[in-house]
Structure formats: structure tokens, C-alpha cells
Amino acid sequence: MNYIVFDLEWNQSPYGQSGEHPRMPFEIIEIGAVKLNDQFEIIDEYTSLIKPKLYKKLHRSIRAMLNYSEEELKTGKSFKDACSEFLKWCGDDYSFCTWGASDLYYLQSNMDFYYMEKLAFPLKFYNIQQIYADMYDDEGKISKLEKACSELKIPEDEPFHAAINDAKYTARVLAKIKPDNLEERYTFDIYRHPKKKEDEIIARHAGVLERISREYSSKQEAMSDKDLLIIRCAKCGRKCFRKVKWFQNGSSTSMAIGRCVYHGYMSSRIKFKSAGSTEDGVFIVKKTERTNRKGYEEVKARQIELREKRKMKRHKEKE
Ligand SMILES: [Zn+2]
């Protein structure tokens, strides 16, 4: 199996939201990729400039970042041609690797805009930015590609923000950190999500029990689904005792703590993602993993802190 490390550059409406096409707010203008063997050695590369169809003028923040002009883009291929060529170049047996999750998201949104055949579902890929964060940052915080390269002392001989260069840098990061359990560290792409219960994705990998749910009409509907709220042990799958009830932490996350009789504390997190089909429609990415007594106490403290804040607020409103 080969790894396809790819990176995209995209443009957006230079006139802000008013000039934006709702089906393609971000238009891809460059695809750069390298193909790696299972030793993470570069065996081939691919690069294409794409002639924009919607936004022919570069947005100023994008112009400031890129190393080429509108004139050069005019010589590019159509997205459809470039994308088909790229996918053919990928071959039959490969996994995508990217720095962050947005490249794969925008690739598919642009493919949809041109009604191209969809990529496989569910789609696993390796988010090198997240893997780097999990391995090198105590809190798992993600960082920019430039920062990771400098931390890993990867020579910066080419400018960043050209798709092919960023793909090469990402490949070098991967070769340098060589995660031994890479096959466990995949991410599910969520450009598309399960619509019905029977399509839900449930997987246990890299110590995390993950579930990507069906669509719900609202957050409230999701949070009243008893089955969704059960915390299962990330190790053995048994139902846990609930130690901290589900509580909302920020607008898009809920948290809870459970305890498996055999494997101890489990921290569970629900992230609400907009389903896009209706205004309030959501689907859920739920992740459960092992934690310790300290982790349990921190979540408990957070729950109490938020509860107190709410009380204070209500008190103030009454005054
Ligand atoms: Zn267990």
C-alpha cells in the first residue's frame, strides 16, 4: 500500500460573502501530492495548477500567501481534468495523508460542485497534524506545518504554501515521526456522515472508542437518545457506571465520565457537527477513552464550575 500525501491551495470570493457561491465557497486552485512507499520514502510526485471558474481574482489574504498570480492560474487545467488525473495517479491501493482535515473536505466539496463520482464511504485517512500533536504535544494541541518542521529540524529549503512543497514537508514530518502504530491512528473523514442508524460508524482504534452517529433533527433530539448517551469502556466495550453526567462544555461539545469495573475511568466526549441539510440538523462524533482519577476530577470540577456560572447568571437576570 502507498501513502498519498496531498495538499491543496484554495481561493475564496475576493468580494466577501456576497460574491460567494453557496455550493463552493472555497475553490481549489492547486493540487500537490507525493506518493510514499511503506517506508515513507517518496517514490513519485504530482502537481497541477487549476484555472478557477468562480473566483478568478485572488482574495487578498490568499494572494499575500501564495507564490503565484492570477495570470499563472489562467494557464491551469480545469478542476475536473486535474482532479481525475490526480485520482488516477493515486493508483488502486493507497491511503490519503494530509496536514489537518480540511484538504480532504474541500477536495470533496469541489468534486461535488462538478458532480464528480464520490470518494468511498466511510473514508479513513491519516491526519498527520493530529498524529503529530498526539505524539509530541502534552495536551494534543495541533500546530502549523512550519512549526512542526522547525521542531523536528527538517530543513526548510522551499517556501511553504505551495501545494507540492507543503505535501513534501508533511511527508517529511511523517517519515521523521514514523508512528509504529500508524494503521491504528486513522481519522474518519466527515465530509459525508451516516444518515440512518444502520449506517452509523463504530470503531475502536488507538485506544479510542469512536462513534459517528446518524443525523438528528437537533442537539436536543441527539441528547435524548439513550443509546447514544451510554458510555462504553474503550477497552472491553462493557457499559460503564456513570460518574459524571453529560454536561455541555461550550456550544459544540458535551462531556461525561464513566467507570468500567475492569478498566477504570473512561472520559467520553460528544461533538455536535452541523448536518447541513436543515438549519438545526446535527450528527455526532463521540469519542471515549481511558482516563485516570485526575482526569475524572478535572471533568467533575469543570461541571461544577459551569453549574455555578449558570446559577450566578440566573441570579443576575432576576435582579
Ligand atoms: Zn472495560
From TrEMBL:
<dbReference type="GO" id="GO:0000175">
    <property type="term" value="F:3'-5'-RNA exonuclease activity"/>
</dbReference>
<dbReference type="Pfam" id="PF00929">
    <property type="entry name" value="RNase_T"/>
</dbReference>
<dbReference type="InterPro" id="IPR047201">
    <property type="entry name" value="ERI-1_3'hExo-like"/>
</dbReference>
<dbReference type="InterPro" id="IPR012337">
    <property type="entry name" value="RNaseH-like_sf"/>
</dbReference>
<keyword id="KW-0269">Exonuclease</keyword>
<feature type="domain" description="Exonuclease">
    <location>
        <begin position="2"/>
        <end position="183"/>
    </location>
</feature>
<protein>
    <submittedName>
        <fullName>Inhibitor of the KinA pathway to sporulation, predicted exonuclease</fullName>
    </submittedName>
</protein>
<dbReference type="InterPro" id="IPR051274">
    <property type="entry name" value="3-5_Exoribonuclease"/>
</dbReference>
<dbReference type="InterPro" id="IPR036397">
    <property type="entry name" value="RNaseH_sf"/>
</dbReference>
<dbReference type="GO" id="GO:0003676">
    <property type="term" value="F:nucleic acid binding"/>
</dbReference>
<keyword id="KW-0540">Nuclease</keyword>
<keyword id="KW-0378">Hydrolase</keyword>
<dbReference type="InterPro" id="IPR013520">
    <property type="entry name" value="Ribonucl_H"/>
</dbReference>
